[in-house]
């Protein structure tokens, strides 16, 4: 599916000055430590978690959102309202987050996007305030920025288009962009978000208490 609204309508200030930013939501995880429950379908505030995560990106000002699906993809399409999003299938989701990041970045080809704002579906404590702060760090296609929590790098992460090829090449297993970002650490603008967000992951049954 593709968005029906004008991608420039209500654009975030960073988009207006430096070209479009696409939200890239990684939502393919199978929830192995949650008994095989796809993370995208966990319920948060009465709706699938993936739907909540898309809403956060849109509320932060992103007019374009690509969602990478894997585990339970058919069920996610059926149960979650993802109207207006570009849905990207990752048949290799079991290989880890790296495969989803590669699939998501590949889906941006031809969009004219200057940067991707990468977020994870299993972090419901990160809201639009944190996303907007990281978006504001965009300067051009060479930008690298990341939310930080008490000085520790976390998500979301802003990847300028100049970095996409390198990130995709380094994204293997569950490492995602970590290896690439470690190599380019001096280039990353850290954006403190610890006062407006909680970066916990939903990985185990004990973590389900973070859902509302």
UniProtKB/TrEMBL annotation:
Name of the protein: Nucleotidyltransferase family protein
Organism: Streptomyces lasalocidi (Streptomyces lasaliensis)
Keyword Transport annotated: no
Residues covered by the MobA-like NTP transferase domain: 23-185
GO molecular function: nucleotidyltransferase activity
PANTHER family assigned: MOLYBDENUM COFACTOR CYTIDYLYLTRANSFERASE
Keyword annotations: Transferase
């Amino acid at each position: 599916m593709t968005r029906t609204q004008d991608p420039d309508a209500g654009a975030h200030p960073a988009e207006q000055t430096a070209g479009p930013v696409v939200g890239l939501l990684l939502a393919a995880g199978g929830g192995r430590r949650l008994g095989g429950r796809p993370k995208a379908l966990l319920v948060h505030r009465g709706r699938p978690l993936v739907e909540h995560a898309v809403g956060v990106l849109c509320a932060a000002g992103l007019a374009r959102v690509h969602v990478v699906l894997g585990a339970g993809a058919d069920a996610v399409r059926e149960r979650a309202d993802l109207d207006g999003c570009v849905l990207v299938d990752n048949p290799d989701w079991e290989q880890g987050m790296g495969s989803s990041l590669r699939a998501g970045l590949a889906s941006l080809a031809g969009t004219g996007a200057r940067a991707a704002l990468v977020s994870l579906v299993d972090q419901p404590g990160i809201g639009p305030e944190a996303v907007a702060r990281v978006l504001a760090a965009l300067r051009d296609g060479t930008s690298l920025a990341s939310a930080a929590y008490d000085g520790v790098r976390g998500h979301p992460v802003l990847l300028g288009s100049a970095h996409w090829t390198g990130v995709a090449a380094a994204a293997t297993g569950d490492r995602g962009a970590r290896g690439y970002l470690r190599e380019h650490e001096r280039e990353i603008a850290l954006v403190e978000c610890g006062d407006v967000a909680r970066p916990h992951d939903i990985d185990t049954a004990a973590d389900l208490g973070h859902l509302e």
